[in-house]
Amino acid sequence: MERGHIFNPSYVLVTTPSLLFDMTVKPLEGMAEDSVLFVNSPKEVSIEQLKKIRVIYGDLTGLALKYVGKDILSAAMGAVACKLSGLISLQSTLGAVEEELAELGLETDIIEKNVQLAKECYLSTESVGLRGLNHKPLHKVVEVRYLGEKGIPDLLSVGNTALRKTGSWRVFKPIVDKNLCTACSICYIYCPEACISLDERGYPVINYDHCKGCLVCTTECPRNAIRVERETAWS
Amino acid sequence: MSIIKYKTLKDVPKEEFLVPGTPLCAGCGALQVMRLFHKALGGDVVWVNAAGCVTLMATFPYTPLKSSWFYIAMPSAPAGAQGIRDALDILIKKGKLDPTENLKVVVVTGDGAASDIGLQATSGAIHRGLDFFYLCVDNEAYGNTGFQASSSSPMGSGTATTKPTHLYPAGNVLPKKDLFEIWRSHRPPYVATISPSHVIDMLRKVEKSLSFKGPKLFLALSPCPTGWGAETSESVKLAKLAVETGIWPLKEAVYGEVTHTYIPSKRKPVEDYLKVQRRFAHLFKPVKNESIIAEIQKQVDEYWSKVEH
Amino acid sequence: MSKECDKSGEGDGMVLKMLTGSQAVAWAARLARVDYIPAYPITPQTEIIEILSEWVRKGEMDAMFVQMESEHSLLTAAGTAAATGARVFTATSSQGLLYGFEMLYNIAGWRAPLVLVNVARALAAPITLEPDHNDVLAARDSGFLQFHTENVQEALDLVLLAYRVAEDHRVLLPAIVNIDGFHLSYTRESVDLPEQSAVDEFLPEYKPVNPIRASAPVAKGTPVLIPPLYSFFKYQMHMASRNALNVFMDAAKEFERLFSRTYAPVEEYMLDDADTVIVMSNSFTSIGKQAVNAMREEGHKVGLLKIRLFRPFPTDDIIKSLRGKRCVVVIDQNISVGKGGITCPEIAEALYHLEDRPKVILPVIAGLGGKSISLEEFKHAVRVANRLASLRAGPDGPLLLFREDEAVLVESLLKLASGGQ
User: Final residue of a domain: which of C240, C259, C278?
Assistant: First the structure.
């Protein structure tokens, strides 16, 4: 029986690759060599640390867009988890999706779309069962030292959220067409995240490391000079 | 006093005080307001925050702000501002602090803290003539906790605690509290409403307020794609519609004297604004609730009938 | 306002004044040269803020006095001002302390040192005015240091000591100095008012850590959503509070050098040969000492231990004073409804692992809402404890000290309230 923090996960599901190496999330912690990592990503992520464990990729965002029309992943991720475990039947999985979404008060057609999404996710995932159960991560109890002034929760490194690459949130990518752009600066002004800067001639430059893909810029551009593409890369 | 610093969008200051990478939702209207508001305020700012969505902007060990930030507690951000302002003043007066270390003290809260739990502290701070800015980013509900109704939620809106049912077809039956008038009744030097869609109007108001000593209070419409049920890309458009339908009047009050800074020449029907948001979807589906929509329109018309003549 | 009187035979410029507890702590704030006093009136704290506001308005004190609109705002402003670098003094009581309660934890978590005088008053409902310690002890777990005072001199001195300890960079925690409402706040006693120059020598200028400054942006009070990090910061507070024990001892030594008065975390009264020890705190300790005198005259080996520093809890001092004693009678002037007194379990825990721990630790509830405690009540508690010790038995719950004359009074008042039925 585990509750809350899972110390030795049989499998880990990650909704976006950028979370894999986030210092504050650490989803890979405690994974055994034979445990399984599922990453929602249209393509493989080649990172050294992932070589020891088995990684499965699936483009759940793509499927969610196909079935629901939005990048809402809960039913899809849930279905993948159920299938990976090898413990939960398709029927129970879809029943749970239906029941929980009905509790949220969603309309019948939206629930049905999510059920279809969950079904495809379930059927397209292989069952791996519970692995790594004997893996016991090595933990050691240490003494915490008194750090005096350094142990006060004040943040001195101001403006450091730039370290968090929120670009991975992006499902659609805004792309400026230099031929149509008149350098009016409207996209720059309305970007909620300060992700658009202006070059020396006044043309917008999008910071894709951090652009969350809200597409306010696309909507507000008076020249329709910002087109949209489904995001495939992540930064 | 010159307020012609901002004439066109080219005059928007280029310096950024907020860096990207915040954990706030994509398309967040509050973040957009804060970014532009900060540009007009300039540097040397300490933001004083009450619990709300923007609290999550700075979570240890990250902050997007290049300026200072102090998260206080939900009910008392204005009192937190009082302590900082007073401490800076007395330390400078006593010669213990170099005046170049002075800062502008700016409260930022959501509408729940502003209209409900923090109203007492706000009233106290305004009454004492505290020299501070107050920016309320109004997304018309308790967004951070999952969009429950606040006293700033408009009549007819659906929230997590005012779900439309057959017994309550309007969703929220209570009117939106008029925070502008509550603030104005204290006769502070400056009160204004702003919208992220009307940037020059916003920047001019901030610029104008900078010349006053005392409370300078801003109520900013802050579209919330998550809670309002709209595409993230529609934030600015919704703000614009709120202004053009007359639902969100742009105005200011200097020592209590009200001036409307923008009067829509021909107001769009409120329906244009309501029908594009999921929080009002029950007014249109499964059957259109003409009477509630008409009531909302009537309230807007009545408001402007007093303004326009 | 205060009557000066001569202290004959003393030629060292010492000034003795007849001061109320309220006046004494106001003087302490003045002598500490505080910068900022946010205030909000509540009985029985009002005299303190009336005096301070008058001194500021007359220009006798170079500080800013601001009347807030609630204790919640008062504590908020106090905390942010301290975090900005001002030396802050404030005072409240009872319901006011509870109204601002969440801010106590915040101020402590910000590691913003300041001094808050709590003028103890029992809590509603039923609403009342006289003291017990349910208000100040409610703040027990907040991270504030807690100093409990018995008399007016101690009230003044401990405010000065509290600043010195709280602002020390090994500590950086706020402090509460408790004075009992009416019994200290409105009671005049002879007080040795320290010289300003000596206080200046005792109290160095407050040096804030990461204060709000234009040249050095800082984010304070940010959410800590990562459980190990939260755990870490919280435990840092605990270690800072434990450090305050040694910092207090050092400060007390310096205080003794400058002012010739000695303060330890606890005070022993006729303890050396005592077999039964009454444990108490705050102003009622004085009548406890009188009771000890009376019982001594009757040949009983009774002593008293006064807890002065309640947070950090002076475990070692308590062990030193109580180990090997036959009976300990812990008089709690508070009640944790459904359990008993608040301090008794803390005393018991401190003694549990000793082989020579007392045979009986008797939990006693007395003095709630300012109820008097007579000599007979003290004697009764001591008798009960010793009887249990002889029987090798433990108490089956807290002992409430309540007299027959009081029971008669209660009965007659209940009759009046019920329309004479």
Answer: C259
Model confidence at C38: pLDDT above 80: yes
C239 in the same domain as C127: yes
Alpha helices in chain A (DSSP H): 60-67, 74-85, 90-103, 108-123, 186-190, 216-220
CATH number at residue C276: 3.40.50.920
pLDDT digits (tens, 9 = 90+) for A91-121: 999 999 999 999 988 889 999 999 999 999 9
Residue B23 touches chain A, beta carbons under 8 Å: yes
All residues of chain B having their beta carbon less than 8 Å from the beta carbon of residue C68 are 79, 82, 124
CB contact under 8 Å between C81 and B83, yes or no, is yes
Class of domain A164-230: alpha beta
Q: Residue A129 has what pLDDT?
A: 86
C-beta atoms surrounding A134 within 10 Å? 8
Residue C305: both structure tokens together: 């231990």
Q: Tokens standing for B179?
A: 């925070």
Instruction: Compare CB distances from C209 to A24, A144, A149 and report the shortest one's residue.
Output: A149
Just give the CATH number of A11-123: 3.40.920.10
- At C160-169, the pLDDT tens digits run 999 999 999 9
Angstrom distance (rounded) from CA A213 to CA C154: 64
B9-308 fold: Rossmann fold (3.40.50)
Conformational region of residue C124, where left means phi above 0, alpha means psi within -120 to 50, and beta covers everything else: beta
**In the predicted model, what is the mean pLDDT of residues B196-221?**
98
Cβ of residue B81 closer than 8 Å to a chain C Cβ: yes
Residues of C with CB under 8 A from a CB of A: 109, 111, 169-170, 172, 209-210, 216-222, 224, 226, 232-233, 235-236, 239-240, 243
